[in-house]
Amino acid sequence: MNLKNCIAFLLLSLINTSAFAQSESRNWNGKKCAVVLTYDDALNIHLDKVIPMLNSYQFKGTFYLIGNSPVVSKRIPEWRIAAKQGHELGNHTLNHPCDGSLPGRGFVTTETDLSKYTVPRAINEIRITNTLLNAIDGKTERTFAYPCGDLTIKDTLYYNALKTDFVAARGVSSGYANMKDVDFSNVNSFFQNGSTAEQMIAQIEEAEKKGSFIVFLFHGVGGEHALNIDLEEHRKLLEYLKKRKKDIWTAPMIEVAKYIRENQNK
Predict the structure, then answer these.
(1) pLDDT per residue over 49-103, tens digit each?
(2) Is 191 within 8 Å of 225 (Cβ atoms)?
(3) Cβ proximity of 219 and 228 under 8 Å
(4) Which domains does the chain have, with CATH numbers?
(5) What's phi and psi for 38, nearest 5 deg?
(6) Which GO terms describe its molecular function (predicted)?
(7) What is the dihedral of CA 165, 62, 126, 70, to 10 degrees?
(8) How far apart are CA 148 and CA 113, in angstroms?
């Protein structure tokens, strides 16, 4: 073997070794990647269908509750049971305010228009919701989810005043972040509407390929919301995650966020 061929062989070996090491990396609690299943808006379907399905596969989800939702006030004992089973109850504000000044926001009412809020009002309502959630599950650590993904009131990032109240805040922008680059004030998520299990599995496999994690953002699962995925597609997703438990860590948002914080600078 001449010198040129020898150098080429060594370079190829190094590349293959690096690729193998990356594919076999187990930085996510001993797994190749992490998956977080989040469900927004406190829907009846979450209690009636989603949580029983998650329990049957022994997975735990994160449910972002709207404080003033009747599905919260009328079903507190069931949410309390869900929390005891290991599901996370996250903060999705008191009134789910969204910025009504943005295009396509005809659904926003005068009372729930974030553009008409003051920052102190937003902070106060979010902290009231934390108090409510604490009364349900007894927990003091929690994560937050921005309604409609809106980060600002006028030009102010209102979450900046809440960073010590939460472990992390989930946004709505998709993307696969390296552990060291995770922004805890706006954690990426993959919004699902009409998605098939095949499409969602492909997103997981991309996260695994990149050695990253993925947060799924669901609303309706089998109905009750205009943003919806089919219940059977959701079941197929869980079936896949069950088969891949050796390599994929599925856990609530708070567990994954805390793990990232603990390991981000290692």
Answers:
(1) 999 999 999 999 999 999 999 999 999 999 999 999 999 999 999 999 999 999 9
(2) no
(3) yes
(4) 38-263 (3.20.20.370)
(5) -115, 145
(6) hydrolase activity
(7) -150
(8) 11
